[in-house]
Fold each of these.
Amino acid sequence: MAVPDRDLGLDTLLDLHGQTLFIDEIGHWVKFVVLRTEVTAERPHGLNYSLTLHAPDGTRLVGFDNAHPVRGRRGPGTRRRAESDHRHRMRTIRPYAYKDASTLLEDFWKEVDADLKARGAIL
């Protein structure tokens, strides 16, 4: 019987810590940094993570991380969110609604695939 609040993908995500994987013959690569941390308002899931896709020259193309707080939207009077979860696509930064480790991995790989398809790196 499964424990109701157990994040089933957490072990998989934590096992990726420190991994760098080359994902095509052109030289695009992904890097995973995932560490358990104290539960805080910024990191309510108790993780410090950075999942990134890089171009062959090292430029970050896509990233999901919680390194710093981001604004929920643009404009005067907007506030920074309590949670630091967000995603990068080139120079664009948007809040990311962290649900669980499995969803984070799924969302990351979807963005990686979309970016590489847009670049013609994969079919």
Amino acid sequence: MARKSGVVFFLMVMRSIVVGVAYFLVREIPGLTSSFVSIFVGFLAFDMIVAMPKFSVRFRHLRDLILLLLPRISGTALSLAGGLFLGVLFGSLTKVGVPILVAAVFTIGLSYSLSASIKGNISSYVGMISAVDMFDRIVRLEYFSTEYWIQDLAGPAGTLIYSTFLALLIGWLVGIVIGSFTRLFLPRGYRSVKSSAYAQPLWMRSFRDVMHLDDDKVLLQIELSEESALAYHSLAEVGLSRDLGVQVLSIIRSPEEITSPKGADVLLPLDQLVVVVPSHQVQNLISLMKGRVLDGQV
């Protein structure tokens, strides 16, 4: 237990270093998006490398790393580019008479929709923030002429585009370097998504863990016999929960299934009940239903 706590603490410290280094390297770069983008992509690169099932300096593993990162990098870059373009477009429209409120709504709404639709993008907020920052810069321009509008836009647009994409690159490099260094000191059990240092996704966890079942609980699928006294009575009337501590998860009744049944749901002969029942009450439940166990898991 102490070892697990130590490793988790080590990962927390290294992630903190990612934040600090990513911010330090971009602190002089102008623009709201610089620090946000650098820190965000730094986190992503770090976590991806730490969680990779296999990682080394061998060509095969480096190739896998590049193939894993490229869709994320390109997706994030497209999201940023789309946000910056929308910021320029709607910011410019305010200079020719479009109400700022209308332009702002379209800027943030379209940038979110565009970013969310891009495969591999790390977050829709990246596109939204770049769009809003660009929009705000153009709206605040004191001088904007219809004759030289390209030159007027080139300054703020070019600065923000340069700073945002530079911060993106720096963030990826920081996350990759610190993530690779961190991998060298992690015990083998912490080097994948199955690691004890991370909350496992639901598809990797057992039903017992997801349902938080105690060791004295059993999951059963049992059929209700026609001779059972429970037939044609509602769940509230039979009192399985009250008398036996049984939790009915679903009632399978061809051709449908009643998930999370209510007390008013009536039990019919040949219904298949999926239940969680205390171990010491299993035989009592079987006798009461006078049916057969179709499936069970202790």
